[in-house]
Design goal:
With 230 residues, this protein is of the alpha+beta class. It is 11% helix and 23% strand.
Length: 230
């Protein structure tokens, strides 16, 4: 007997709702989100770094410095007077899907320098700018989200839930994103705190100190250069 219109519509709705979950998995660290055997071919992806968890002391200073959601861009800043190698570090984002990516080999941020990460955007990597497509298949232009910055580790989905491995974190638009508890456990973010979503054409920038929403300011975009803090 042919399916009724109601059954057909319900099936179509179920596919639309559940298919993204099947594709992107349930959290940063789900093996469906990244291919750990993919070679580094100029795009962001696994580097084969299987060193024990941890990183050189100088990497502690590298911070998430600005996020421009509308343009799907993340800026990392090295505020020290020495170059810092963040090869093998991970970035994890969970909205609109749960996705993560690893910094390629030879990702070095100059003293007081910046690295632009184009999330889900195609392009050619350079010394101060990397593009994460196709490892990250979709952009980040969403009204709420989170970004976690992790030290290098051999791929293990459980490591994304380890508070000892996360180095920086910010969430915006609303609370209770997937890795909020990891950041709270690392004492780098307050429970259920978030930065307001920036209006169209604006980003939110780190003011240079602290680990809370009060450390962030809505500003005109200054991706790749010093933040314009009022």
């Amino acid at each position: 007997m042919p399916a009724s219109p109601i059954t057909t519509q319900y099936t179509r709705f179920a596919l639309l709702v559940f298919l993204p979950v099947i594709i992107f998995g349930f959290g940063c660290g789900d093996a469906g989100n990244i291919n750990p055997n993919l070679p580094d071919a100029g795009m962001v992806g696994p580097t084969g770094n299987t060193d024990p968890p941890g990183a050189p002391e100088t990497t502690e200073a590298v911070v998430i410095n600005e996020i421009f959601p509308e343009a799907s861009q993340i800026e990392l800043h090295n505020p020290t007077s020495a170059s810092v190698d963040i090869s093998g570090f991970w970035l994890c984002h969970t909205t609109p899907a749960l996705i993560y990516t690893q910094m390629p080999d030879n990702t070095i941020i100059d003293p007081d320098g910046f690295l632009i990460v184009n999330w889900g955007i195609n392009g050619t990597n350079s010394a101060d700018e990397i593009f994460t497509f196709p490892t990250v298949p979709i952009p980040m232009n969403v009204p709420h989200g989170e970004i976690g910055f992790y030290v290098p580790f051999g791929f293990d989905e459980n490591n994304f839930a380890d508070s000892d491995l996360i180095r920086d974190y910010v969430q915006w638009g609303e609370a209770d994103h997937f890795r909020q508890g990891v950041a709270v456990g690392a004492d780098i973010w307050p429970e259920r705190a978030f930065v307001p979503s920036p209006p169209a054409g604006q980003s939110f920038s780190f003011n240079g100190s602290g680990d809370s929403p009060e450390s962030w300011v809505i500003t005109p975009p200054t991706i790749g250069i010093e933040n314009n803090i009022p």
